[in-house]
Amino acid sequence: MKTTLIAAAVSILALSTSAQADPVRDATAKELPSLMTLYRDLHANPELSLAEVKTAAKLAAEARKAGYTVTEKVGGHGVVAVMKNGDGPVILIRADMDGLPVTEETGLPFASKIRGKTPEGVETGIMHACAHDTHMAAWVGTLRNLAAMKSQWKGTVVMVAQPAEESSAGALAMLNDGLYTRFPKPDYAIAFHNSAALPAGTIGIRSGPTFASVDSVDITVKGMGGHGAYPATTKDPIVLGARIVSALQTLVSREVDPLESAVVTVGSFQGGTRHNIIPEQALLLLTVRAYTPEVRKQLLDGIARIAKGEAIAAGAPEPVVKVREPFTPPTVSTDAYATQLKTLFTARFGPERVQDIAPTMAGEDFGRYHIADPSVQSVIYWVGGVPKDKWDAAQANGGKGLPSLHSSKWAPDAEAVIGTAAEAMTAAALDVLKR
């Protein structure tokens, strides 16, 4: 009887251990050390938008090594890696590759010391200040996992390493270069972004608008220059520019419906060379954010109207208002697929690690993959990167003191981001492609 009870106990323990085994988590854990090595290399060697030559080559090599059919130079330096595994759905998994013109101040032993020039010719440090290096490392982890687990899925995986997300040019360039015609068109498209506002390893997800549209607007304010001692003989573009800046604030506060989200920020006011010279012109650089085409149009039309009206009031020439292209459209996570992924992630990671999140006024050109074909079910989600000690300290300080994305001091808990994201992305792909 005693022998029988022992045997039964061993059998139950074996079943329990088997039930707790998780192939996706185990596969990700196995890859994590080499993914961290890749991450540190990518972090130390960032490249700016439209210049991701070496970065793209590294990711293409990783995909080829895993058995994917790889095409390079799609829409610039984009990489498309395809693995077909029988009949079934097609899922597109995207990571972005570009760094930012930011001089790194994280103090990491593998901090970037790379310098370069922006398209405008400004010499600058270069840094993965938006942590796209974690996106790429998790992307490689996902493609490795899916290649090793081909017996568990059917369909097609399209891995997209996208250039120029920061300049809003990359997704559009790849689509214009035949992403949906030269390669299998996806039924689903997924991506993630690391978060500087969530604790490391936490997933944030929502359905509906997730990222805002982004427009960059230049206003060249014209005047008539002269001596600073004789302002009556001039038309001062500095004063006119200041009036325009003040009047622009009423677009959001007095013209847009208070229940709509909108932002008009003047990020740069350039004009003049000396204390005693009134210049011929000044330049205002704006960022404009909205969630709907209607509000976007209202803001852009209002900016042009205000600039012209203030110039008329000042008796100055009409300003030149230029809306730069390409703009970033809103990124919307489709309702049904976002709900499906939230359920999947909650079951896998537990409710304490999956949060409903609010939309952000930041921009992301991932939205173009759905806009190009609305039948594509599309979701982008967040993976928290704030290290636990820094998160706890910030909470004790009322949530203050954390560096944001694009900060020279942003150093996420890369292991938590990469491990969580690769596991989540692999699970999401298997959920779509399950046999």
In short:
The longest helix has 22 residues, at 23-44. The protein has helices at 2-20, 23-44, 53-65, 132-148, 170-176, 237-255, 293-314, 335-349, 368-371, 388-396, 414-433; strands at 69-74, 78-85, 90-96, 115-117, 123-125, 155-162, 188-199, 203-205, 208-211, 213-222, 226-227, 262-271, 277-278, 281-290, 320-323, 331-333, 354-356, 377-386.
Query: How many beta-strand segments?
Result: 18
The separation of the N and C termini measures 43 Å
Proportion of β residues?
15-25%
Give the full name of the CATH homologous superfamily of the largest domain: Zn peptidases
Number of helices: 11
Q: In this structure, how is the largest beta sheet organized?
A: 8 strands, mixed
Domains counted in the coordinates: how many?
A: 2
- Which percent range fits the helix content? 25-40%
Looking at the structure, the CATH topology of the largest domain is Aminopeptidase
| Uncertain stretches | 1-19
| Reported CATH architecture of the largest domain | 3-Layer(aba) Sandwich
Q: Give the helices and strands as they follow along the chain.
A: HHHEEEEEHEHEEEEEHEEEHEEHEHEHH
Shape: elongated
The CATH class of the largest domain, by name, is: Alpha Beta
Strand order of the largest sheet: 1-2-6-3-7-18-8-17
